[in-house]
Amino acid sequence: MNDNYERSFTEQEQIRRSKYEKLVEEGRDPFRETYFDRTHNAAQLIEQFDSFSKEELTTKQDQEISIAGRIRLFREAGKKAIFANIQDLSGSVQIYVRQDELGEEEFEYFRDLDLGDIIGVSGIMMKTDHGELTVRVKKAVLLTKALKPLPDKHAGIADIEERYRRRYVDLIVNPETRDVFIKRAKVIRTIQSILDEKGYMEVETPILHQIRGGASAKPFSTHYNALDSEFYLRIATELHLKRCIVGGFEGVYEIGRIFRNEGISTRHNPEFTSIEIYVAYKNMEFIMDLSEEIFRQCATAVNGTTKVNYGGHDLDLGKPFKRWHMVDAIKEITGVDFWEKMSVEQAAALAKEKGIKVEKHQMSVGHIINLFFEEFVEDKIVEPTFVYGHPVEISPLAKINAEDNRFTDRFELFIIGREYANAFSELNNPIDQFERFLEQVKEADAGNDEANDMDIDFVEALEYGMPPTGGIGIGIDRLVMLLTNSESIKDVLLFPQLKQRG
């Protein structure tokens, strides 16, 4: 991309720049305006005045209002009157400008404005003969000159990549886009409200980590000059939040950015938002109940109902979520029964029989069970389902199941083939944790670039004693996608990562 601001302009851009230069010459530079005192936004005007009839509004001539926004429609009504629509975040409202009220000079000044310009107007409320609520303008001021024209009203931004690159334009011209991000904010505020009411504390933990840990993912790395050492952008907040539980906090959570050096797709962005929650003296079943509560209340907050349509599937988040052991799910779909104890060789033979490739670092029964789940079960799940009982080998931070030490008290929440949450009864045995980290180191040596590092400080933290704890991580972006029926993760990220223009 050319960083030189001196570039060729389209005919429309040249016209707008000429208009701006003329304004400057006349001492009316709009970019010098710093303040406009609004009494209302568009929605407030409609709420306050739309119920009045045309005749009733004539009795309110002494009630002057002020509103500001971007010009979105502009039409002349003869030579001496103009109708326009101005848009703010809350909506749009019609304004009516007359030469005999503004004066000839100010009226010509107004007539020379362009679509996209940001103006402030003061006036009184009226209704047209067609009953449309309208601001009858007494005074108008140009607050910002738009030097680029907006996309055509009907065509919009045809190139989906341009919508993401120029999100600021997308937000101007597409109210549906603005609505997605308003709903995203509601989701986050709703989750915070739920957890705050339960007495849990929101905390902040480091983004730069010296050790890879808390998830199975490939990190971004950077050199920290002051310490002359390599650091990683965090792939999870888990290990620091559990240190908070060791320190005596009994319920903590963090909503923040996570970074994973992975591909870009409709489901993945290397920089995304998650929430992790840890609650002392609770277990996996409690966390299942908590996550159901979060999903239901978020759906109600943004859509007014627990019913959701996503990708053509109708779901009701108000119903209890299915709870399905991973081994039972595999057995039901494939007929293969991993409840039967078997050797790695036997499990590998079953994988080969089913056409599953097993890498060197995956040569364990637990890894093969997980490969079966990913290959044959994951995309078959439609209704919200807690898949629990993950093998020990793929769950280095989860507590071993008391009845079968091959599996852990861990679950993932799947909806329509996508993972939305990952949760455990947290491993709090420092001796076991040390051994699990050792296995992760072996996996890394065998070629797994997503394996955790040995985190001795975390092991030592556990040696001071962490109470039984339930924890969960929920992908905020995917939750917003679900509740807004958004096809791509880019649709719910204001500024997603994109490939550079060619």
TrEMBL record:
Location within or outside the cell: Cytoplasm
Pfam families linked to this entry: tRNA-synt_2, tRNA_anti-codon
Cofactor: record remark: Binds 3 Mg(2+) ions per subunit.
A GO term, aspect molecular function: lysine-tRNA ligase activity
Keywords of this entry: Aminoacyl-tRNA synthetase, ATP-binding, Cytoplasm, Ligase, Magnesium, Metal-binding, Nucleotide-binding, Protein biosynthesis
Entry's Gene Ontology BP terms: lysyl-tRNA aminoacylation
Residues annotated for Mg(2+) 2 binding in this entry: E419
Enzymatic class: ligase
Quaternary structure note: Homodimer.
The name this protein goes by in its record: Lysine--tRNA ligase
Organism: Spiroplasma chinense
Gene designation: lysS
